[in-house]
Amino acid sequence: MSGKVYLVGAGPGDPELLTVKALRLLQTAETVLHDDLVAPEILQLLPSTARVQNVGKRCGAKTMRQEEINFLMVTLAASGLQVVRLKSGDPLIFGRAGEEIEALRRSNIAYEIVPGVTSALGAAAATGIPLTHRQASSTLVLTAGHRVSEKSGESWSECAASESTLVVYMPGHDYAATASRLCSAGFAEDTPCAIISCATTPRQKVHRTTVSNLYLSPTLPAPALLVVGEVVRFAENPADLVEPSRLSNYAFGAQEGQLS
After folding, report:
1. The model's pTM
2. Less crowded by CB within 10 Å, the N or C end of the chain?
């Protein structure tokens, strides 16, 4: 009997932002293949009977190559298991879901995509930044900082010209280079920016600055993203560095030691 693969979005970190379907799948999971940046609060929801494996990467250090992940998903599902492929944020936004879907289709493995709250939405909500605003921005652009190319530089120029909100996933720590690219793209030096680390979790940190001072930003832990645009001026707290109060009741009744 063939199994099935569920490509599940874990959201930005706060377990209360999981969809009802995602929570149900996690609490009844047989096998879970998760990315490295999935929040530990999410992993605590897994049953002690589940086979859990970290197949992600951090700072370029891969636990497993993508081809190996594809093979593992197919093999486990073909043996009859229900496999949860757990990704931070949403599977379809910078989550390599497209490659995994292709592998599952080639092997005739049943699959289902369970969307999640992507990091940009979670970070914006946690900091009170409206990603669009009638008086500031009517366009939102999501891009990945770890793959900045000449083409992406052109899209950044379009963002600056149209006064769009630019959200850079995985911006890295070379903020001087990022500031240089933003200035070259046409962003004004006083354009506000916000670096948001571990959004929606008890570890959340927020650093607010401008394009000209971006190079002075502290190194905050991953996962982090960078929001650039006039909408940052509407952020809820004017402090440069903000740590929210700890989340309460985050485990949905999960007990310590559930994770195998």
Report:
1. 0.85
2. N
